[in-house]
Specification:
Structural class: alpha+beta
Order of helices and strands: HEHEHEEEEEEEEEHEH
Low-confidence stretches: 9-22, 217-224
Largest sheet: 9 strands, mixed
Helix content: 25-40%
Number of domains: 2
Length: 239
Amino acid sequence: MKNTKFFQVAIFTVIMSMSTSAYALVIGGSDLLSTSNVTQLESWLGQGQLDLTNIFDKTSSDTSTDFHNAVDGQGPTFSIIEVLGDANGLFSESIIIGGYNPQSWDSTTGYRLTNDLAARTAFIFNLTSNIMQAQRLDNQGIAQTVNVTASGPSFGQGSDIWVNNTLGSGYTYAYSYGSCNGYACSITGLPQTSAGQLQFGQIEVFSISPSDVPEPASILLFGFGLIGLVGIVRRKTHL
């Protein structure tokens, strides 16, 4: 009797540990994303639990050419950008912004135009303030991303996020994403003089795939079934 109870408690402990750790994997690690950030990205994307693979992790010598060499042709991605400061200097704490590109990056297309409204599934975001701006469905929303050798991960025709060829600076001018235009509406939430002159720190890009980790509910159902089976076996042995 005591051994059975001990076994049931042990199973329950393992189940709860598995269920609470069943988060998306960040393969290759990240200096910018927390677990809650990943959960937020999953929620915005709405495709269930995801695995994110780090395919670009900016170093001090990297340029936009290195960015494209790493990410072009890799399918849908999240680009994560650390904003260190603005025209007025460095911030006491950085801001984390970025964007979801549902199509592969490339170096030659220029503006990736999405005439089909069903293809306008990209979005940009601010993980520091948990704000998301969807690609617009009017004429302004046609330009999804900027695909040229001289730019890092850049979104929209504003550009709503633009990263220069050194990957060290840029701006955020709302136009193709969100509901209004201009620096005052930018994804950073900064005033015009700031959003127009940004200093970038770390940049990470992640490819996206469905997670192989079972959903917590599935783990719990399996586990409680296993505990019940232990109870049935115990009763049968005492008949």
